[in-house]
Design brief:
This protein is mostly beta strands. 9% of the residues lie in helices and 37% in strands. The protein is elongated, with a radius of gyration of 18 Å. It starts with 9 loop residues before the first strand and ends with a helix.
Length: 125
């Protein structure tokens, strides 16, 4: 079984994922410098990293704020597409690769054990 995969990155300014889809999201922002204050947003170090997230067209944050067309991580942190006002924004996204030996991104219920066994029993390259 060939476990190599190709990931197609999409510019978040050009197109957004389908609602509810898990994605790999490239996020950019700035870590605050030690002792920095909110009044100095240019302080700190810039970063760009990839995190698993899901995309939704509507989300209510823990603080009650409503967000539209946003990416949400497993901690409930909301990040907006690049170009919108946010401390950290998603510049690019990619649909997650399919499961090993499958054409799907997820298997639920009683089919999980069969899928796992098939993936482990398949010859590797």
């Amino acid at each position: 079984m060939d476990l190599d995969t190709v990931v197609a990155w999409v510019d978040a300014r050009e197109r957004l994922p389908r609602r509810g889809m898990p994605v790999a999201a490239a996020i950019t922002g700035r870590y605050p410098a030690e002792g920095a204050t909110e009044s100095d947003p240019a302080s700190g170090e810039e970063f760009w990293l990839v995190k698993p997230m899901y995309f939704t067209t509507q989300h209510r944050g823990a603080d009650g704020a409503e967000h539209n067309d946003c990416f949400v991580d497993s901690d409930g942190i909301v990040r907006l597409p690049y170009g919108r006002v946010s401390a950290e924004t998603v510049t690019h996204w990619a649909y997650l690769p399919t499961l090993p030996g499958r054409t799907t991104h997820g298997v639920l219920g009683q089919d999980v054990q069969t899928a796992l066994l098939n993936a482990w029993d398949a010859p590797t390259v």
